[in-house]
Amino acid sequence: MIKKRENWLRACFHYDLVPSEWEQIGKVMKIFTSRGIFALKQTKLDAKQEKMIRNIHQMAMHLMIDTVPLVPTKYGDLITSIDGIKYLLTPWVAESSSLSFEMKMEGLISQMSRLHVKTIRDGESYETNIELYKEELVKEYEFHEQFASKAEQHVYLSPFEQLYLQNFSSIMSSYENLFTYLESIKQENNQDDEHEKKMVIRQAICHNKPTFNHLITQRERQFLINFEHADYDIFTFELANILMQLNHSQIDMQTLVKGLTLYQSICPLNTKEKELLVMILQCQRRYYALVKKYEEASGSGRELHFTQQWIKEVLFYDCLTGACKVFQPKNEKEES
């Protein structure tokens, strides 16, 4: 504990800060000084992540994206290191307004779409990105197989297990459809047709932790924070992740369509990217987290709670399906 305190003080010394008071909030130390209030974050970064952090800072300084710029040390460095741990300093920016869920969603989608559209890279190979994404899907797919296998061995199925097995085939089919589609776009990426090349899946800088916790609203301005995991990736994945993590109790089809339309107005997706987005949203991935929580939970109210949660997830997917029909490419709608 004393060692950690010493490291925080040593980091402050690099910035010529003399704390009069401090408060630790997770990995961030809120520091009160005569120069103002600052946020000093402790993190681990490799060389690639450090380079991205510096790129994001330059973009912020040129007003390309809305984020809180880093404060350089007295030696001019944006990142300081103590005993292998990296430290980043920014001015302390606190929430100054309470927004509705819809306004938060619009703010997050607006900020992410601006980040994506300003950093698009054309002509980059995306096979590695797809393979990494498929690895996550395979992990979930295998978990579902194992859970279903265990449930089928029970003499008496619980209400949740009955509900799960009734929907098991549909869940697995949605994964298999996405596997097939991802493999097809990998193949298209390797062909020589010029028209197809214009319709490739593009990459841009992705935040990779796009949550409301990393969006700060202060007066009339919004800031994205926590870019430690940012990297170039298929930005359609990130848009899908934003939509898939929304709270089912606060979302409806109209809100989803509004969010998709807002994104499209700032960072237009081509036909292939729209197809990919629809395929991802139609994959029933949210059940994975729900079933994992069910496995880990205990208590007399477990069955009722998770059965109710399942029904809410079904309603959420109904909203997603409706939004997909509105958003998917016209030729897709005509075929279906």
What key attributes describe this structure?
12 helices; 336 residues; two-stranded antiparallel sheet; 5-stranded antiparallel beta sheet; alpha+beta
Ends apart, CA distance between termini: 62 Å
Strands in their spatial order, largest beta sheet: 1-2-3-5-4
- Which runs of at least 5 residues are low in confidence (pLDDT < 50)? none
- Helix count from the secondary structure assignment: 12
**What Rg is obtained from the alpha carbons, in whole angstroms?**
23 Å
Order of helices and strands: HEEEHEEHHHHEEEEHHHHHH
Work out the helicity level: 55-70%
How many beta-strand runs?
Answer: 9
Proportion in β-strands: 5-15%
Average predicted confidence as pLDDT: 89
SS-derived structural category: alpha+beta
Q: Based on CA inertia axes, which overall geometry fits?
A: globular
Strand count, sense and barrel status of the largest sheet are: 5 strands, antiparallel
Characterize the structure shown:
The radius of gyration is 23 Å and the shape is globular. The model has no long low-confidence stretch (mean pLDDT 89). Helices cover 55% and strands 13% of the residues. It is built from twelve helices and nine strands. Helix 3 packs parallel to helix 8 (253-266) and helix 5 runs antiparallel to helix 9 (271-282). A five-stranded antiparallel sheet has the order 1-2-3-5-4, with helices on one face. A two-stranded antiparallel sheet has the order 6-9. It has 336 residues and is α+β, with helices and mostly antiparallel strands.
